[in-house]
Amino acid sequence: xxxxxxxxxxxxxxxxxxxxxxxxxxxxxxxxxxxxxxxxxxxxxxxxxxxxxxxxxxxxxxxxxxxxxxxxxxxxxxxxxxxxxxxxxxxxxxxxxxxxxxxxxxxxxxxxxxx
Length: 115
Known about the structure:
Layout: H1 4-20, H2 23-30, E1 34-39, E2 44-49, H3 52-61, H4 63-72, E3 79-84, H5 93-102, H6 109-114
Parallel strand pairs: 2-3
Antiparallel strand pairs: 1-2
Helix pairs in contact: 1-4
């Protein structure tokens, strides 16, 4: 994810999705999806799903909810392009331990979305 505007946009999209699906479905399918980028000229949202299964499940079962959520934010004309897999962020063992200690080994849903 890049800019402050993209971060705000993704937070707005996630909040709208969270209102439109039950909490368990949101946590299971949407909380781990990340915004890779947004191209307003091409009206394109680039999303990253953690697995092919997650992407397939969302596109098979939640397309209408996603479209409705985008429409609520005046993004109804946007299309979605998917990539699959976790980011290849490399942390040194020291940084991993420090991060775990700082967060008490726990991350909130919002923190998980940003990583």
